[in-house]
Structure formats: C-alpha cells, structure tokens
User: Fold this.
Amino acid sequence: MPSMDIVSEVNASEILNATDNSNREISSRFDFRGVDATFDYAKEQVTARAEAEFQCQQLLDIFRAQLIKRKVDPRAMSFDERALHRGKIFSIPITFKQGISNDVCRKIVKLIKDSKLKVQSQIQSDQVRVSGKKRDDLQKIMSIVREADLEQPFQFKNFKD
Assistant:
C-alpha cells in the first residue's frame, strides 16, 4: 500500500549559505557602502541589522532573493514587519518554521477528505502520513496540498510503494 509523509522542514545549512551570500552581496553593493549592515546566524535564527529601518527592509529583500537562489521557500520565514530599534541599530529577527502545527495538520487532513480520493491520512506529531491504494491518488494529494494556500512550504518524504 503506497504511503508518504507531508512535512515542513528547512535545511539549516542552506540558511547559513544564504546568510553568507547575503553578507557578501551587502559588502559589494553601492547603496550599503559605509553603512553598518549585516546578517547574523545563531541557533536557527537570522538577524538583519542596519542603521535605518528602510535598510532593514532592503536587507530582507536581499535575504529573500538569496533563499530563492538556494531553493529554500521564503514562506518558511517568520518575522515582524517593524524593525526593533536599539541604540542606533535597527534589527529584524527572522525565524524559520520547522514542522507543521496542529491547526495546519487539521487543514491538510480536511483538504484530503474534501478531495474524495480513496486515501487515509493520519496526524503524526508535526507531520501528516497519507496512505492509499494507488500511487496516482497520492500524487493528486501532493498537487492539492501544493496548490492550497497554507502559508507554509511542504515537502513530501518517505514515498513508498
């Protein structure tokens, strides 16, 4: 009986690479010459620091572009739109969504049941296991979950026949 797991994971090494590439791009950009602007990576959290709030927004755009180049979905980022102000430095802490919350798991299960396909779904802590008789049904479920706007990227692992 074919089965698969729907998960939401972000590769920490890709985040670190995107952070390093963003710092390199900042050092070579003309509009950031003479400006104290950096990205710091610590404990699966990235912090964008700059001297002005609009520069923090530019840093976010640079970081988002680097994530896309590294094939990391930017929807996995969560941050405040407003920058924190400490002294003369503005900063925006960026965290990444790891795992699927119970509410989103329930929405996925509801999507699967509403599709009327002959598959079973189970919530397993921070992932959803889907099993069915046909491989084609699982592939249809994959497309349904990808098309749904759940504001989080999903990966499909352990696809077994």
